[in-house]
Amino acid sequence: MNPYLLGFRCLSCGELHAPDAVTYTCPEDGGNLDAVYDYVRIGREVAPTDLTQAPSRSIWRFGPLLPSPAPSGLPTPLTMLGNTPLYRAPRIEEALDVRAVWLKDDSRLPSSSFKDRASAMVVAQALATGREAICVASTGNAAGALAAMCAGTKLRAIVFVPEGTPEGKLAGILIHGATVYVVRGSYNDAVRIAGEACKKFGWYNRSTGTNPYTREGKKTAGFEIAEQLAHWTAERGFRAPDSVIVPLGDGNILSGVHKGFRELQQIGWIERMPRFIGVTAKLAPSLARTFTSVSETFDEIPSTTIASGISVDVPCDGVAALRAIRSSGGTVIEASDEDMLAAMSTLARDGGVFVEPACAAAYVGLVEARRAGFLRSSDEVVLQLTGSGFKDVRSAVRAAPQPHTITSLDDIQ
């Protein structure tokens, strides 16, 4: 156990529980839990260069701010993941009149998805506590990540996905040896059944909103962005951009990346927080509707979006995401399916990255935020890209231009 870890605080009642006293949600009221560290002590005993100049470039170099120890053993995807590229996008900057646009490309992780960060942390905790099986409810990416992170270990991965999960995502899950159950229903139905199965069979539940270790893995993207931005301006340590734009389904990715920056600020390694812009699907409106109100209560509204990665009826980590957006002075933007398909093409053509519709939502958010004046021309913006376009080839075919069929050179114009 990390000596800097103080415990897990309930996002509902505020109670701080000892690290070994809780497993999933708050025992008092069922609220989601958030890990709390001794930031003053870390600032006193750890230098930022201890992390940024560590020989390993994996997420495990951030050990003082992680709840579980790095898995031991030979290099594997589990022990080596992280350090995904941060690209500059000059053509997008010029088109939208924005000073700097960066693309954090987590499609380069082992399972081609951001969710590897969360699954790695949960698998590390499972190994440290002697678990035998891990279960997850997922729209595809979290399941693929869990299967990939369990591969090569003694852990068994059990997955529940809703019917209609793209074939590319199912293939990645199955090829890594996971046991897959397709639920006749929505993602939230899969969450419910997975939770019931974990109780009945004693499996360790990795599902978003249930397992607090998922956010701890996802925050490493925030650490990396701040580290890479400092590197590109020849600074030591960490640096924050003006805004970070994140696709928004359950809310756990946004709350995680935000937490990475928040912890750097609490330690004193960055001076300010970036604004966070969350982008939901218009056809999955639960979180966006709550954002426009003053509440933290979410209605369950059936999702019909093609963007499987952000297709949720009700967000499992919505409270943390809303607090992150509101506290940073950010906003929520809704993306139509048509705009996400168009954004897939634009990101590939003008940014050089091939992403799935849910991931392309971040670009839609960039365009809409700039159009509305929420982003200035002088801003530096990071788009958190979360999943490869190969995860949903059917949507990619819809988004891409059609090839030309010819019989000779005379047909070329």
CATH class of the domain at 78-112 and 212-399: Alpha Beta
Trace the largest sheet across and list its strands: 4-5-13-10-11-12
- Form type: globular
Give the biggest beta sheet. 6 strands, mixed
**Mean pLDDT metric:** 95
At a glance:
The protein contains 15 helices and 13 strands. Helix 5 (116-128) packs across helix 6, helix 5 (116-128) crosses helix 9 and helix 13 packs across helix 15. The termini are far apart.
Overview of the molecule:
With 413 residues, the chain is an alpha/beta fold. Among the domains are: 1-37, no CATH class; 78-112 and 212-399, Rossmann fold (3-Layer(aba) Sandwich), CATH 3.40.50. It is 38% helix and 15% strand. The protein contains 15 helices and 13 strands. The chain has helices at 39-45, 48-52, 77-80, 90-96, 116-128, 141-150, 167-175, 187-201, 213-232, 252-267, 286-291, 318-327, 337-351, 357-371, 393-399, and strands spanning 5-10, 16-17, 33-37, 86-88, 100-105, 133-137, 156-162, 179-183, 204-205, 243-247, 275-281, 331-335, 380-385. The chain has a six-stranded mixed sheet with strand order 4-5-13-10-11-12, sandwiched between helices. Helix 10 links the parallel strand 10 (243-247) and strand 11 (275-281). Helix 5 packs across helix 6, helix 5 crosses helix 9 (213-232) and helix 6 (141-150) packs parallel to helix 7 (167-175). The radius of gyration is 20 Å and the shape is globular. The model has no long low-confidence stretch (mean pLDDT 95).
